[in-house]
Amino acid sequence: MKMNFTRRTLMALTVVAIAAPVYAADKVNLRLSTPASETDQRSVALAEVFAPAVAEFATYEPHYNGSLIAQNSELEAIASGDLEMSITSAQELAQFFPEFSIFATGYVHQNAAHQVDVFNDPLMEPFKQKVEDELGVKLLAVMYLGQRHVNLRQTKDELAVMTPEDLAGINLRMPGTDAWQFLGKALGANPTPMAFTEVYTALQTGSVDGQDNPLPTVVDAKFYEVTNQIALTSHLVDLNYVAFSKSVWDGLSADQQAAVKAAAEAAAESGRQKQLEKEESLVAFLKEQGMEIYKPDLNAFRKHVQGQYAGSELAASWPEGVLDRINALGN
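The structure assignment produced for this chain is given below.
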């Protein structure tokens, strides 16, 4: 049975779960639970880069496909002392701390490098500290997952998407939650909720004009067979955080702590570069399939989308001034 955790309960659990000090002769066991597969770029990066870097004092024990802890329960497991590591999203953290929703919002992160700049900037310190203090979770690094773009049936001659106004009247399939539907409207489109399994047929028949997903999904789902263009809107630059047990962290020596953090950052950078290379290669592949791929006016999109969020219920939890500070770190 899944427990419902309040912040007070989580704080209590964090205290109870404080681990015994890690002595020099012992190796700490670092179990990671993730819903991702063994071949996922995040899993590969941690196994190939993180694990060897901490092998002198830690044993890395990954569990894939949600086989150890159920998806979306990993943070609770770390808080209760039942898990040492996970890969978590801003959306998951927002379930405990609503202000984290800013990092899962359209046009907040501009690209992979901007994600790193934001994560390492002092503006993130209150966010990180709150997660440590109230959840017992230390966020070590940010992992780049890719960028979502607008993929349409129309050719560029029929419809060139350069600004949000160009998407007026376009039925764009978006995931069905309120947050996703809000983003679709903010982009200027008519968002259409639809199960992912139905999207290919809907594009094929014209039930929808387009869909939004990262390039790897466009290729894996073969959406390029039933669409003609991709406007590289980059409206959501998705991320995960490497999450680590604060109680285990506190039991490490200063040198071990530094090694764990450096290893997490190196793993994130390795995965980041591989994902960027994959995206670049997929642009070439999709062009070979006859797709028209181009970059719209991103400043126009960013200004419009952020304007839609300003004053909305979705932005009510964002700390004052943080969005401006994030934007200032970009280009």
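Interim note for the steering committee: The beta strands are 28-33, 58-63, 85-88, 137-152, 171-174, 190-193, 210-214, 229-245, 292-294. Confidence is low (pLDDT under 50) at residues 1-24.
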